[in-house]
Amino acid sequence: MSGKASSRPRSSRPNVRRPLQRGEVDVDLVSGVDYGPLTGLIGYNLRRAQIRIYQDFLDTMEPWSITPPRFSAMVLIRHNADMKLTELARAMGIARSGAVEVVNSLEKLGYVKRCDSRTDRRAYALALTQEGEAALKKVTRLIQEHDARISAHLSEAEQRQLRELLERLG
To answer: Where does the record place Low complexity bias (predicted)?
Structure first.
Protein backbone atom coordinates (compact mmCIF):
# COMPACT_ATOMS: atom_id res chain seq x y z
CA MET A 1 0.00 0.00 0.00
CA SER A 2 1.49 3.32 -1.03
CA GLY A 3 -0.39 5.34 1.57
CA LYS A 4 -1.47 7.90 -1.05
CA ALA A 5 -5.09 8.97 -1.21
CA SER A 6 -5.42 7.96 -4.86
CA SER A 7 -4.91 4.27 -3.96
CA ARG A 8 -7.83 4.31 -1.56
CA PRO A 9 -11.43 3.63 -2.62
CA ARG A 10 -13.75 6.61 -2.71
CA SER A 11 -16.10 7.31 0.13
CA SER A 12 -19.37 5.38 0.18
CA ARG A 13 -21.23 8.66 0.57
CA PRO A 14 -22.85 10.20 -2.51
CA ASN A 15 -20.74 12.54 -4.64
CA VAL A 16 -23.14 15.39 -3.91
CA ARG A 17 -22.09 16.67 -0.52
CA ARG A 18 -23.73 19.20 1.68
CA PRO A 19 -21.54 22.06 2.91
CA LEU A 20 -19.73 21.46 6.18
CA GLN A 21 -21.45 22.94 9.20
CA ARG A 22 -19.62 24.85 11.90
CA GLY A 23 -17.49 22.45 13.91
CA GLU A 24 -17.66 19.62 11.35
CA VAL A 25 -14.54 18.07 9.92
CA ASP A 26 -14.09 16.79 6.35
CA VAL A 27 -12.88 13.22 6.80
CA ASP A 28 -12.27 12.38 3.14
CA LEU A 29 -8.63 11.76 2.32
CA VAL A 30 -7.11 14.72 0.51
CA SER A 31 -5.85 13.98 -3.00
CA GLY A 32 -2.10 14.44 -3.31
CA VAL A 33 -1.42 14.11 0.42
CA ASP A 34 0.82 11.24 1.47
CA TYR A 35 -0.67 9.77 4.62
CA GLY A 36 2.30 7.50 5.22
CA PRO A 37 1.48 4.61 7.54
CA LEU A 38 -1.82 6.17 8.70
CA THR A 39 -4.01 4.50 6.07
CA GLY A 40 -2.63 1.11 7.14
CA LEU A 41 -3.68 1.58 10.77
CA ILE A 42 -6.92 -0.01 11.95
CA GLY A 43 -7.55 2.67 14.58
CA TYR A 44 -6.99 5.51 12.13
CA ASN A 45 -9.44 4.05 9.61
CA LEU A 46 -11.99 3.21 12.31
CA ARG A 47 -11.86 6.78 13.61
CA ARG A 48 -12.34 8.30 10.14
CA ALA A 49 -15.29 5.98 9.51
CA GLN A 50 -16.71 6.72 12.96
CA ILE A 51 -16.63 10.47 12.34
CA ARG A 52 -18.51 10.06 9.05
CA ILE A 53 -21.05 7.66 10.56
CA TYR A 54 -21.56 9.83 13.65
CA GLN A 55 -22.24 12.92 11.54
CA ASP A 56 -24.82 11.06 9.45
CA PHE A 57 -26.43 9.83 12.69
CA LEU A 58 -26.60 13.36 14.12
CA ASP A 59 -28.06 14.72 10.87
CA THR A 60 -30.71 11.99 10.92
CA MET A 61 -31.61 12.48 14.60
CA GLU A 62 -31.47 16.28 14.80
CA PRO A 63 -35.27 16.81 15.06
CA TRP A 64 -35.40 14.55 18.13
CA SER A 65 -32.17 15.67 19.83
CA ILE A 66 -31.11 12.03 19.95
CA THR A 67 -27.42 11.15 20.21
CA PRO A 68 -26.01 7.61 20.09
CA PRO A 69 -25.79 7.38 23.92
CA ARG A 70 -29.37 8.66 24.28
CA PHE A 71 -30.64 6.15 21.73
CA SER A 72 -28.74 3.31 23.42
CA ALA A 73 -30.17 4.30 26.80
CA MET A 74 -33.72 4.47 25.45
CA VAL A 75 -33.41 1.02 23.86
CA LEU A 76 -31.93 -0.50 27.03
CA ILE A 77 -34.59 1.09 29.25
CA ARG A 78 -37.36 -0.04 26.89
CA HIS A 79 -36.16 -3.65 26.79
CA ASN A 80 -35.22 -4.01 30.48
CA ALA A 81 -38.13 -3.30 32.80
CA ASP A 82 -37.25 -1.81 36.18
CA MET A 83 -33.68 -1.01 35.06
CA LYS A 84 -31.79 1.12 37.55
CA LEU A 85 -29.27 3.83 36.77
CA THR A 86 -26.27 1.76 37.85
CA GLU A 87 -27.46 -1.13 35.66
CA LEU A 88 -27.87 1.24 32.71
CA ALA A 89 -24.35 2.60 33.20
CA ARG A 90 -22.91 -0.92 33.33
CA ALA A 91 -24.87 -2.04 30.24
CA MET A 92 -23.70 1.04 28.30
CA GLY A 93 -20.11 0.64 29.48
CA ILE A 94 -19.98 4.16 30.92
CA ALA A 95 -19.49 5.70 34.35
CA ARG A 96 -22.54 6.17 36.54
CA SER A 97 -22.09 9.95 36.25
CA GLY A 98 -22.29 9.62 32.46
CA ALA A 99 -25.50 7.63 32.75
CA VAL A 100 -26.93 10.31 35.05
CA GLU A 101 -26.16 12.90 32.38
CA VAL A 102 -27.81 10.82 29.65
CA VAL A 103 -30.92 10.12 31.75
CA ASN A 104 -31.20 13.77 32.83
CA SER A 105 -31.11 14.89 29.19
CA LEU A 106 -33.73 12.29 28.24
CA GLU A 107 -35.89 13.42 31.15
CA LYS A 108 -35.67 17.05 29.97
CA LEU A 109 -36.74 15.91 26.49
CA GLY A 110 -39.73 14.15 28.08
CA TYR A 111 -38.64 10.69 26.91
CA VAL A 112 -37.66 9.04 30.23
CA LYS A 113 -38.98 9.13 33.78
CA ARG A 114 -37.75 7.84 37.12
CA CYS A 115 -40.22 5.59 38.94
CA ASP A 116 -40.24 3.73 42.22
CA SER A 117 -38.43 0.43 41.81
CA ARG A 118 -40.49 -2.70 42.40
CA THR A 119 -37.43 -4.57 43.69
CA ASP A 120 -35.39 -1.93 45.56
CA ARG A 121 -37.00 0.77 47.68
CA ARG A 122 -33.70 2.70 47.81
CA ALA A 123 -33.43 3.11 44.03
CA TYR A 124 -35.43 4.46 41.14
CA ALA A 125 -36.32 2.41 38.09
CA LEU A 126 -36.15 4.00 34.67
CA ALA A 127 -39.00 3.90 32.18
CA LEU A 128 -39.87 5.50 28.89
CA THR A 129 -42.75 7.96 28.89
CA GLN A 130 -45.51 7.67 26.29
CA GLU A 131 -43.68 10.38 24.33
CA GLY A 132 -40.45 8.39 24.70
CA GLU A 133 -42.11 5.20 23.43
CA ALA A 134 -43.46 7.05 20.38
CA ALA A 135 -40.13 8.77 19.71
CA LEU A 136 -38.20 5.51 20.08
CA LYS A 137 -40.45 3.81 17.55
CA LYS A 138 -39.88 6.60 15.00
CA VAL A 139 -36.15 7.03 15.58
CA THR A 140 -35.49 3.28 15.53
CA ARG A 141 -36.85 3.14 11.98
CA LEU A 142 -34.74 6.16 10.98
CA ILE A 143 -31.63 4.70 12.62
CA GLN A 144 -32.16 1.42 10.81
CA GLU A 145 -32.34 3.43 7.55
CA HIS A 146 -29.16 5.29 8.60
CA ASP A 147 -27.44 1.96 9.27
CA ALA A 148 -28.52 0.60 5.87
CA ARG A 149 -27.29 3.81 4.20
CA ILE A 150 -23.83 3.74 5.77
CA SER A 151 -23.35 0.06 5.01
CA ALA A 152 -24.93 0.07 1.53
CA HIS A 153 -21.61 -0.71 -0.18
CA LEU A 154 -21.16 -3.89 1.85
CA SER A 155 -22.88 -7.19 1.11
CA GLU A 156 -24.90 -8.90 3.86
CA ALA A 157 -21.99 -11.28 4.44
CA GLU A 158 -19.52 -8.36 4.66
CA GLN A 159 -21.79 -6.53 7.12
CA ARG A 160 -22.02 -9.63 9.31
CA GLN A 161 -18.24 -10.12 9.09
CA LEU A 162 -17.61 -6.47 9.99
CA ARG A 163 -19.86 -6.72 13.07
CA GLU A 164 -18.06 -9.91 14.13
CA LEU A 165 -14.63 -8.34 13.63
CA LEU A 166 -15.61 -5.19 15.55
CA GLU A 167 -16.91 -7.32 18.43
CA ARG A 168 -13.53 -9.08 18.57
CA LEU A 169 -11.74 -5.71 18.81
CA GLY A 170 -14.01 -4.55 21.64
So the answer is: 1-14
